[in-house]
Inverse folding.
């Protein structure tokens, strides 16, 4: 269980097939905003497979970290636990 | 799509054709029956590749994705689908023709 405020890095994986992690966030670092609960893994549901429940987190990223924009805005994305690693 | 420029978002309501409403209903019925989930729909839509988003309309992509999932779920076979499509085509090209048949 990742607590709010924890720094996490999104895995840099680029597999073919159905995943729910936006490509532009892979490899990027953000902060856990909150834990949203556990949900059946959509990456398995997408293929009609039995899906285990995986914790889902809302993660906050600084726009400037993503696109070098000079902006102080942030972006929140919902990402499954198996894509996140504490850093 | 994919972060590319796409112009303004049309905000007017669409006037859906009967077949499009049927496609929407089919998605609700098939997912309600547990044949597949919206995740499966999304996966099949994504697998169509970029060109499909230019060449096909919204519900054309949906019916293709629903069909893909129903075949995978074993709901019907491609042979059964082929037979049914031929039978339906023989009724005529329009609803009016089909209703006269």
């Amino acid at each position: 269980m990742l607590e709010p405020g924890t720094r996490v890095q999104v895995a840099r994986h680029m597999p073919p097939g159905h995943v729910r992690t936006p490509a532009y966030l892979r490899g990027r670092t953000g902060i856990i905003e909150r834990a949203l609960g556990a949900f059946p893994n959509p990456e398995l549901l997408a293929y009609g497979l039995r899906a285990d429940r995986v914790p889902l987190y809302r993660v906050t990223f600084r726009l400037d970290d993503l696109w070098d924009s000079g902006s102080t805005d942030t972006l929140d994305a919902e990402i499954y636990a198996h894509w996140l690693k504490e850093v | 799509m994919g972060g590319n420029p796409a112009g303004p978002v049309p905000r007017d309501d669409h006037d859906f054709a009967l077949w499009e409403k049927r496609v929407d209903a089919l998605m609700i019925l098939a997912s309600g029956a547990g044949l597949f989930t919206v995740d499966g729909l999304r996966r099949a839509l994504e697998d169509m590749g970029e060109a499909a988003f230019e060449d096909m309309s919204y519900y054309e992509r949906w019916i293709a994705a629903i069909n893909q999932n129903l075949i995978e779920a074993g709901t019907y076979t491609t042979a059964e689908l082929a037979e049914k499509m031929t039978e339906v085509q023989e009724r005529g090209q329009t609803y009016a023709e089909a209703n006269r048949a």
Observations:
- The radius of gyration of chain A is 13 Å.
- Chain A has a mean pLDDT of 95.
- Helices of chain A lie at 42-45, 63-67.
- The first strand of chain A starts at residue 7 and ends at 10.
